[in-house]
Amino acid sequence: MNLDRVEKIAEAVLYEGYMLYPYRPSSVKNQRRWNFGVLCPQAYSESQQGSEAWMMQTECLIKATPSTRLSVKLRFLQIVKRSIGKLRTLGHEVPEGMEPEFDAVDRLEVAGRVFQPWQEAVEREHTSAALDPASLSSLAPLYLTFPAGKNFEYLHDELGRAVGVIVREWENLTASMQFGSTLSCDGVFMVTVRVRNLSFFEPLATADREDALAFSLVSAHTILGVEHGEFVSLLDPPAEFKDIAVHCNNIGTWPVLVGDLAETVLSSPIILYDYPQIAPESAGNLFDSTEIDEILSLRILTLTDDEKREMRQSDDRAREILERTETMPEEQFRKLHGVLRGLTPVKEEAL
After folding, report:
1. What does pTM read for this prediction?
2. d(CA 75, CA 177)
3. Angle between the 316-326 and 305-314 helix axes, to the nearest 10 degrees?
4. For position 335, what pLDDT does the model report?
5. Is the Cβ–Cβ distance between 199 and 113 less than 8 Å?
């Protein structure tokens, strides 16, 4: 069992909506994040009468033997607040661990680059391995903590003097993973994976979703893998398992088979078919999968020089999209235009 084979599919899920065309922080639709699979703190969810989720649950079926072992990987993005500061004393850098004196600004141009505040994101994950499906219900909840932090990156002018600083801050996150299993029939277990966001958050009367996102698990999903066993499709279960499959209760996420065999499941907030694949014509992530790759790539090329400059300087991932699109060979563009797959002959109607 190799969980790496689903990484490309999982990456597409993880960064869906991370940044939208035209990939500029000044764009109205990039002022607020709208990623799928957001697990807010419980306190905020309750203040919103449950309209914002704080828990997700995956239930699926595994055909198991005594030697079957299960692995579960939780993956999500954590929001990182990026602020820009202008140093009060030109060229003054303080030792690591100390906070420099600066004034927060909305825009700072240094050495021909423009720096702006933004919401970045870092990937977080945890894997629980070698789990016995028959004994999951006896396991205590697993508590995960991702500590808060802050770091500073100095900005230097053409003469090498520190004139500004990028401040990156992230909040403390606490989550729990709880496992369960029920023997549904001979050798078939219904496995449950429940993820909760237990981060401390005190919602104020003026607090909005943007405040809660800093304490949220964003684009949360799980990848399940099994050795010496086999998952059962919930989209198209075999006849003998259909009555069991309908009792699987998935909340905020949906498990589908991925890879070549029925040994890996991706459970994400985006509903997919079994065995999804990244189209071979795709040159890479665009984060805006509601768009057609060809149209979106052509739109990127029509951006003005100032727009491209902002896109290039706003975010490393956005810069990679721009550079990939601008250097895309003509034959690659032709591949994006469309392809026919799975044609079958039309049956002749009986006379």
Report:
1. 0.86
2. 12
3. 130
4. 73
5. no
Question: What single-letter amino acid sits at 94?
Answer: V
Q: What is the mean pLDDT of the chain?
A: 87
Report d(CA 302, CA 325) in Å as an integer: 11
Q: What is the pLDDT of residues 28-69, one digit of tens each?
A: 777 666 678 899 999 999 988 888 999 999 999 999 999 999
CA-wise closest residue to 70 among 196, 174, 190: 190
Distances, alpha carbon 97 to alpha carbons 155, 173, 220, in Å: 17, 22, 32
Q: Are the C-beta atoms of residues 79 and 218 closer than 8 Å to each other? A: yes
Bridge partner list, 76: 124
Q: Is a pLDDT exceeding 60 seen at residue 286? A: yes
DSSP state of 96: T
Determine the Cα–Cα distance for residues 287 and 315; give it in Å rounded to an integer. 13
Token pair 């975010």: residue: 315
- Which residue intervals of 134-292 are DSSP H helices? 209-213, 242-245
The token pair at 52 is 């914002």
Residue 348: its pLDDT value, please?
Answer: 62
| 98 beta partners | none
Nearest to 77 by CA among 287, 324, 310, 265: 287
Kindly state the DSSP code that residue 216 receives in the 8-state scheme.
S
Q: What is the residue extent of each domain of the chain?
A: 1-31+279-338, 34-275
Closest listed residue to residue 24, CA positions, set 313, 258, 250: 313
Residue pair 327/269 in contact by the 8 Å Cβ criterion: no
Task: Look at residue 3 and give its three-state secondary structure.
Answer: helix
Using only the alpha carbons of the chain, give its radius of gyration.
24
